[in-house]
Structures are given as C-alpha cells and as structure tokens.
C-alpha cells in the first residue's frame, strides 16, 4: 500500500499492563530528580514494572539511574535502557532514544523481572549521582475485604481470566536443537541455514536456538512447526535485521526482514528489525502463516513495521515500535500484555487494518500499554480496508493518544464506517466522546483473545 512517511524524532519507551494483583508504588525526589516506580502486573515468579524519571535539575544528555533490588529480584528484559548489573545494586543507563532529559522533562522506561518469595519495591534511587529520596510502599496483591473492584476489571462473565505469562526460559536449549552462532561455535552461522536444514515436510516441533548477536540477513520460514529461540539474557541481545524498503524496489510486503510463510511458527526472546530509516515503507516482519506465536519479541522499524498479513497470530509480552501504520494487515491478531510505541514526535496512526468484511475479528490489543514520544498526537488507527476491525480492550493509553480524535480516515475509507472500538481502557489517553466508539459489555463478551484466535480448530495459545 502507498502511504506517506514523515520524519521521526527522539523517542521514549514504557511498559505496563493492567492487572488486579498490583497497584502503583512511588519513590519521589526531594531535589534534582523524581522517580515513579510502578508494578503494573505480577505473577508467579515474574512481574512487569514501569519507571517515570523526571529531571528537576540541569538538562541531562545521558542518564544513569541507580537503585537497590532486594535479594531474589532481577531484570530479565528492559525497554529504553540497559542494566548492568540487573540485580542487587542495579545501574540502568539510557538507550539512544531515551538519553536526553531536559529540565522539568521526563522519560518512561520499563522492564520485566523475576522475584522470589516476595516482590517489594526497590530502594535508594539516584539519578546521575543525585539521590531521589522519598517514601515507598509495597505493592498490594489483594483488595481489602468488601471493596469494589475498579472499573477497569471486567465482570467474570465477560472475560475469561488470564494470567500474564513469565518470560520463557532461554538459557537451556532442548537437547539436540540446532544452534546458530555467528562466531562459528554452533551448527550454523546464519538463521536461514538452520531453517533450510529443517525437512520440507516437517511434522514435529523443531527448536532452533540462536546465540546472542546481530544477524544481518533476510530470514524466510517455509517449514511448519519451527521455533526460533534467542539465547541472550534479553530479547534485545539477539537481533535479526536488514534494511530493504519499498523505495529500494522491493515493494512494501516484500521489504520484510523476516517472512513467516508456514503454520505453527513460534518466536521467543528475539528482536526482529528493519533499520532502513525514514523515507519509505520498510517492514520488519511479514507474518503470513496460520497460528503464529511471538512471546517476548521486539519488532523495530518506522513506517509499516509489522505486517499481520493473513490468518491468526498471537503476540504476548512483546514490544512494537514505529511511526505510521506500523501494525497493519488483514489478519486476526492479538497483542496481549505488550507495549506499542509511537516513535514520531508529531504522531501518526498505529494501525492500518485491512480486515475482510466476512471476518468478525481483526486486530485486538488486550491489556497492553500504548505510549509515544509526544502527547496528544498518536492515533489508534485508520482503515486500510473499508471493513477494518480494531479493538483496544482494557489497555493503558498514555497521554500520547489524540484524545479528541483518535481514529482517522484513509484514502476513500472512512473510520466511521470501519469497526473501530475501545473497551474499558484507562490512563491519561483514555476517554469517551462522539469520536471514540465504546464496545458494549454484551458485545465485549465475544471479543476476547480466545475468540479472535480460536477459528474452526479451537486454537488457544493464550497464556
């Protein structure tokens, strides 16, 4: 599809998800800096947290945030920073897109972590050596007796209970699994070589483990039942990247770095990226195989980052960034407990759905976080096809959302004729008005992740 690209700007990242098991906790600075630490969801052995770092002193061109984790707590995956060490006396340093914080400005970053025994808040925040002092309170795991659940939690009859999944183990590959390593220590030096070695008529799960590193190649999956599993300590350590683009003569759909053309594909603990930059559509991943699952995967790009082309796809604990229409296509796709980030300071539409009129389900964002580089500029989507179907359900919408008009037209397709809805969203970007259709409770009962993905074979990958 032909769509205009506009320049991107310096971005921030955040991660959080709604869950009744946790409430916000805060550490506030007396001078120099202010840090808000929020545990947004937790489950057995794991949790998701977000940090808002506000600079009250001189402008900072690179920041270093320190804090102390109790024994048993550790960062396993981060957005917007790197942590070394990731446990104990943690030192978090800014990634390139969150490096600068002006006076009075803030950045939002986040992470997944593990905990043992209990999940208390960290202590002793410092920003570039300046103490960020203040009181903290441990997260509440149960509501006081007799209290009414918040409006963001749907009735039990509306949504089947789902528990946010922990990041899958990545350090111990299955016995006999092929290993890809650029340094020659594995069976293959490229991901494609390992995929090519899978039998053409494969009928059993084949797990291909990929050592940490950057793999600049085009990857095409044509064999069913294949798993790509990154072996780094975080998804950002194993990167598959290339820079094909529509402007380079490939066309939009053929510009992808990764093509998934077979059924029952799984990817975990990886980054899939197109680093072409600005100026043209450039796809990171083109998913065109049924029953694809992506767990703890980062999708990086600008315009048209992720093409959910056809069939059914499930994205969980993942991160998608871009500028324009960066989640687009005609699939039935669910984004669960994930972070969606608009990179461009002038905003743009997140989705460009092309759902066929015969399909009930298009793209669902469920208990995910929507954030961006600037406030009141990001649109939830526009209709690539006239029957486009998109639902943002129980999501945290940050101030990046264009509150008054979060949906927009595309070519001759009017957003008002598309099937665009919100349901029980929260956050500063949430709201209701004549331009923000809200789904009813009765209809929402049939718009769960399981409903979007079940098809005629009852597929249920929801964790």
UniProtKB/TrEMBL annotation:
Catalytic activity line of the entry: [(1->4)-alpha-D-galacturonosyl methyl ester](n) + n H2O = [(1->4)-alpha-D-galacturonosyl](n) + n methanol + n H(+)
Pfam family, one: CBM_2
Membrane-spanning parts: none
Signal peptide: 1-19
Native source species: Paractinoplanes pyxinae
SMART domains, A to Z: CBD_II
Bias type Low complexity, positions: 130-145
Biased composition (Pro residues): 162-176
Upper lineage: Bacteria, Bacillati, Actinomycetota, Actinomycetes, Micromonosporales
Every CBM2 domain range: 26-135
Protein name: Pectinesterase
Residues the record marks as active site: 325
């Amino acid at each position: 599809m032909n769509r205009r690209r506009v320049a991107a700007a310096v971005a921030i990242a955040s991660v959080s998800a709604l869950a009744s098991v946790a409430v916000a906790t805060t550490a506030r600075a007396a001078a120099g800096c202010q840090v808000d630490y929020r545990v947004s969801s937790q489950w057995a052995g794991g949790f998701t947290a977000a940090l808002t770092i506000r600079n009250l002193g001189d402008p900072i061109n690179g920041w270093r945030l320190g804090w102390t984790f109790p024994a048993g707590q550790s960062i396993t995956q981060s957005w917007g920073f790197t942590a070394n060490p990731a446990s104990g006396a943690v030192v978090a340093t800014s990634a390139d897109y969150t490096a600068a914080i002006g006076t009075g400005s803030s950045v939002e970053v986040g992470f997944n972590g593990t905990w043992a025994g209990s999940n208390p808040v960290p202590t002793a925040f410092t920003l570039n050596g300046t103490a960020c002092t203040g009181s903290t309170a441990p997260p509440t795991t149960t509501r006081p007796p007799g209290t009414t659940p918040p409006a963001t939690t749907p009735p039990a009859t509306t949504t089947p209970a789902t528990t946010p999944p922990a990041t899958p183990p990545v350090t111990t590959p299955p016995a006999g699994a092929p290993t890809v390593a650029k340094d020659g220590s594995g069976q293959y030096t490229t991901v494609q070589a390992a995929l090519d070695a899978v039998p053409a008529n494969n009928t059993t799960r084949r797990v291909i483990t990929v050592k940490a590193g950057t793999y600049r190649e085009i990857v095409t999956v044509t064999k069913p039942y294949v798993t790509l599993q990154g072996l780094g300590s975080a998804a950002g350590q194993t990167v598959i990247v290339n820079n094909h683009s529509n402007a380079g003569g490939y066309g939009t759909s053929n510009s992808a770095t990764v093509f998934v053309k077979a059924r029952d594909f799984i990817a975990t603990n990886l980054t899939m990226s197109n680093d072409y930059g600005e100026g043209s559509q450039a796809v990171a991943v083109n998913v065109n195989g049924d029953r694809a699952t992506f767990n703890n995967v980062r999708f990086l790009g600008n315009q048209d980052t992720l093409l959910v082309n056809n069939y059914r796809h499930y994205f969980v604990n993942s991160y998608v960034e871009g500028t324009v229409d960066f989640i687009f296509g005609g699939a039935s796709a669910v984004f669960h407990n994930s972070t969606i980030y608009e990179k461009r300071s002038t905003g743009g539409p997140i989705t460009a759905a092309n759902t066929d009129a015969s399909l009930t389900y298009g793209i669902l964002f469920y208990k995910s976080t929507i954030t961006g580089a600037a406030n009141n500029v990001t649109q939830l989507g526009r209709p690539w096809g006239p029957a486009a179907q998109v639902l943002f359900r129980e999501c945290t919408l940050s101030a990046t959302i264009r509150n008054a008009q979060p949906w927009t037209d595309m070519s001759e397709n009017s957003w008002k004729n598309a099937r665009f809805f919100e349901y029980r969203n929260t956050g500063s970007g949430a709201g209701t008005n004549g331009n923000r259709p809200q789904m009813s409770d009765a209809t929402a009962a049939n718009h769960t992740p399981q409903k979007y993905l079940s098809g005629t074979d009852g597929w249920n990958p929801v964790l």
